[in-house]
Amino acid sequence: MDISTVWEDLAWDNGGKIIYLILDGAGGLPDSEKGGTELQVAQTPNLDRLAQDSSCGLGILSALGIDFDLQENDIAARVNFATCDRNGKVTDRRAGRINTNTNQRLCQKIKEKVTLDFDGEYFFETVSEHRAVFILRGSGLGGNLLDTDPQTTGTTPLEPQAQSQDSQKTATLVRSFIEQLKQVLADEDSANMILMRGFERYQPFRSLADRFKLKGVCVADYPMYRGVSRLLGMDILPRGDETTVPSVAILLWGRLQSLFPTLDTPQPKGVGILASTGESRKHGTKSRSFPPSQNRSASFFRDSTFLLRSN
């Protein structure tokens, strides 16, 4: 039984307020007596079951997180620029954490020189620093592929392998893309290869407002959080900096039923805002911007206490 259908039946307008606070990077330090970090040794049967029964569409979230106009049935994969030695073995899975400007230059270089022979088109876009996103758009494409990222150094990237018949065409296109890309990036010092993971076909979700009568706001900068929020039907506000978060969150709090802040100080500087007025459609919401005059104030999270209250 899908319990969320019961929640839909019980939902009503103007309900209580909810805060979801994500402590990004709160992984702890390894402890030899415990056998790892707190999160590594934690017993998480419910999360494990959810992960086993779910798909991990990192590419979908990456594309939505940079406001890419993803279309239904697009195939997306998350990309890391990486470094390989002369034997083709991965020496750095993040290419020395290249900056975003270098990433943009590389993406443009790839798009100018790599072509794919099929009835469709591909997109290769910068996400942030060493991360990018690869999108295929066309007919007859499946998203059931294994990652090419070996998740370790000292070994070669994995071959794109289809896990279903309808994904064979996708795997062939990905192989062609990577082979051409290796030639294009051969003259780069560090970012001379890519690793891909989280292949998925995009199927839009019904929005939180549509299902549960929740009008939400997400306060975040990092594209992954923005992608999750867009997938759930929230509107997206322009990114700002660390001074933009509090006044907007406070301003919107009186109009919204849920607040989704993320404490992501390990990520690049700058905190943006995602919000929703609940004006959702069956397959998502239309993005819009809020006036710059609403974007001001000082640090929001560092000295804050969060209270959970239902009215």
Arithmetic mean pLDDT:
78
Strand content: 15-25%
Helix-strand category: alpha/beta
Low-confidence stretches: 263-311
C-alpha-based Rg, rounded:
21 Å
Sheet with the most strands, sense and barrel status: 6 strands, mixed
How does the overall form come out from the CA principal axes? globular
Number of helices: 9
Distance N to C terminus: 29 Å
Number-wise, the strands total 11
Q: Name the helix and strand elements from N-terminus to C-terminus, one letter apiece.
A: HEEHHHEEHEEHEHEHEHEE
| Fraction of helical residues | 25-40%
Any overview of this molecule?
- This protein has helices at about 5-10, 40, 45-55, 60-65, 100-115, 170-185, 210, 225-230, 245-255, and strands at about 20, 20-25, 75-85, 90, 120-130, 130-140, 195-200, 215-220, 235, 260-265, 275.
- It has 9 helices and 11 strands.
- A hairpin with a 5-residue loop joins strand 3 (about 75-85) and strand 4 (about 90).
- Helix 4 crosses helix 8 (about 225-230).
- Strands 1, 2, 8, 9, 10 and 11 form a 6-stranded mixed β-sheet that branches.
- The protein is α/β, with parallel strands linked by helices and about 300 residues long.
- It is about 25% helix and about 20% strand.
- It is globular.
